UniProtKB/TrEMBL annotation:
InterPro entries recorded: Rossmann-like_a/b/a_fold (IPR014729), Universal_stress_UspA (IPR006015), UspA (IPR006016)
One Pfam family named in its UniProt record: Usp
Residues of the UspA domain: 7-155
Top-rank lineage group of the source organism: Eukaryota
Protein name according to UniProt: UspA domain-containing protein
Length: 161
């Protein structure tokens, strides 16, 4: 059990392989062999997209699909949370909190850092190219510039063909 002096680590997760890898890597490197006295209090955060934000891009007539989009986002969030719990359990990490918060991942993760007074934020890297990153915006890049703590970006090793 983490003590009162234990620092907090926030790990941002989504439904990507990069996110899964980042969580596994973090558990292997920071929590392995420390099940009795973990180095950090672990808070895992999933930012669930807001259906209205997505539908806002779709235009008129989109209101009818709002409940379906919301339902899909809830199903994805449940799957992401379940997978995170399974990963933690498989690594013998049982002392953690999982939060699902609706909104933009960039803001949600920075707010989670503030809320939990985290000393480190861990995010995966999607490895977008310059154009896609310019259009979509990089969560890791945003957090690196705006989170009030150390930000660790975990990148998957490139697979050799």
């Amino acid at each position: 059990m983490a003590t009162a002096e234990t620092q907090t680590m926030v790990v941002g997760i989504d439904d990507s392989e990069q996110s899964t890898y980042a969580l596994q890597w973090t558990l292997d490197h920071f929590f392995a062999n420390s099940t009795v006295n973990p180095p950090f209090k672990l808070v895992i955060v999933h930012a669930r997209p807001s259906p209205s934000a997505v539908i806002g891009l779709a235009g008129p007539g989109a209101v009818e699909v709002l409940p379906h989009v919301d339902s899909d986002f809830k199903k994805i969030a449940a799957r992401v949370v379940e997978e995170a719990k399974e990963i933690c359990s498989s690594k013998s990490v049982h002392d953690f909190v999982v939060e699902v918060v609706e909104g933009d991942a960039r803001n949600i993760l920075c707010e989670a850092v503030e809320k939990h007074h985290a000393s480190i934020l861990v995010v995966g890297s999607h490895g977008y190219g310059a154009i896609k990153r310019a259009v979509l915006g990089s969560v890791s890049d945003y957090c690196a510039h705006h989170a009030h703590c150390t930000v660790m970006i975990v990148k998957r090793p490139k697979t050799k063909h």
